[in-house]
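ok here's small monomeric GTPase, seq below lol
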Amino acid sequence: MTGTPGAATTGDGEAPERSPPCSPNYDLTCKVMLLGDSGVGKTCFLIQFKDGAFLSGTFIATVGIDFRNKVVTVDGARVKLQIWDTAGQERFRSVTHAYYRDAQALLLLYDITNKSSFDNIRAWLTEIHEYAQRDVVIMLLGNKADVSSERVIRSEDGETLAREYGVPFMETSAKTGMNVELAFLAIAKELKYRAGRQPDEPSFQIRDYVESQKKRPSCCSFV
Ligand SMILES: Nc1nc2c(ncn2[C@@H]2O[C@H](COP(=O)(O)OP(=O)(O)OP(=O)(O)O)[C@@H](O)[C@H]2O)c(=O)[nH]1
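and the structure came out like this:
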């Protein structure tokens, strides 16, 4: 993705809503951010979810921040996800920090074929705790699960890290689409549940939901 450094580009030609409220009136509008090192696949992940397509070929790093909207229906409610795709490169960090505070959910990606992207997850979580809302929903995603021959991070390592931080985890592929929709649906369900919780409604546990729904890569998860 390209854009103007320091400014939000409007990928759909739609004006981004500043501080969208999670209001039961619209059914619901929620702001989700994609975070993680440069090259882990954030833009591809978003395009796969939005358009069902995979951007292969030359890697063009995101500049600044970009967004797309997509409406999903969960449990009878229409949830508009406003999804912000951030630049993973260090030099854009101060731009993206400004967007954290309005986010209700963060999808934090690493690349299962890139050890440093996994090692940097702790630093990302530190940053999240510094800049994001305290009750922000966080999900850890090990992307590029289709590239089993180049895997350097075991699925178990992702699971262990996620458990340590109390966040849901799954491996994904922006190329094949594995678990991409599920990641956003789980977020939408959680935010819908938080926004419109009825006294008689059973509680929604996002980690249990993800565990019960996620697909695992067809090949072994060991290296
Ligand atoms: N095989 C495979 N390749 C992927 C996957 N996701 C992304 N890629 C490739 O990884 C490279 C980087 O993808 P991007 O989506 O641009 O990465 P990014 O995280 O948005 O990078 P920044 O914009 O710099 O933060 C591209 O060459 C993609 O084609 C995936 O799930 N599987």
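fwiw Confidence is low (pLDDT under 50) at residues 1-11. kinda neat tbh
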